[in-house]
Structures are given as C-alpha cells and as structure tokens.
C-alpha cells in the first residue's frame, strides 16, 4: 500500500502543526508521509518541543517553514489546524482532500498563565488532543467532508 502524503497547516508552523507532524511520524509512519507548514513562519516553539519530548516524540530537529518551502509533493490530505490557516489556505492542485480540524492555540492560552507549569498544562492538553486525532489517521479524514477546508 502506498503511503499517503499529509500536510498539517497552521498560522506560524510553530506549535500545533509541528506537534501533528511529529505524532504522524511517530504513530502513523506505516501509512502516512507527514509534512507541516505555516502561512507565516514563527519559529519552533520551545514549549511545544518540551511537551512533545514528555510524550516520547522528538520534534527538536523540525523547522518552521512556509508552504512554498516544501518540496514539490502531491498531497493527498491538507489539514488546517487553526482558523487563520483555514481562511488563508493556499490552492493545492490535484485531487487533494482539504479538511479543517481546529485546535486551541497553546501560546495564546499560556499568555495569562501564573506559572510555567500552568503554561505547559495548556500545551499538554492540546498535545494530547492532537495525538488522539493523529492516531485515527487517515480513517478519520476519509470519513470527513472533503470540502470543509
């Protein structure tokens, strides 16, 4: 069976899309080739790296990048993970299935945190939700409405 190419897209390719790419490589490498990008570049979020390491997934070598910087890949799936990426999703030629699955933005949630532990708790909650979503790939995308992104 040929692996499916999947792109996780969020605003800055700093946190959510990086987590999704890391989990896809760790959990679904048998059926997916995972990529991530942003509509902007914000750099890799150190807290995202830390909470992913807690979950046994090393994303420290991943880099924040724009869609234009990806290799020329025919994506089977493009998954937008936030509203900005959904609204600004670029055109992808071919029979790509675009799906929007929004997750809270950990850096935004952590802004008002009283401590680093409280800030990390937001990252962990979103990390776990992304892990649950990615664990069901690609079946949960095949069941989704392909016109939702």
Automatic annotation (TrEMBL):
Example of a GO MF term: protein tyrosine phosphatase activity
Domain Phosphotyrosine protein phosphatase I, chain residue ranges per copy: 4-140
Active-site residue numbers: 10, 16
InterPro entries: Ptyr_pPase, Ptyr_pPase_sf, Tyr_phospatase_low_mol_wt
Entry-linked Pfam families: LMWPc (PF01451)
SMART domains named in the record: LMWPc (SM00226)
Entry keyword set: Arsenical resistance, Hydrolase
Record GO biological process: response to arsenic-containing substance
Homology family: Belongs to the low molecular weight phosphotyrosine protein phosphatase family.
Name recorded for this polypeptide: Protein tyrosine phosphatase
Organism encoding this protein: Solidesulfovibrio carbinoliphilus subsp. oakridgensis
Native organism taxonomy: Bacteria, Pseudomonadati, Thermodesulfobacteriota, Desulfovibrionia, Desulfovibrionales
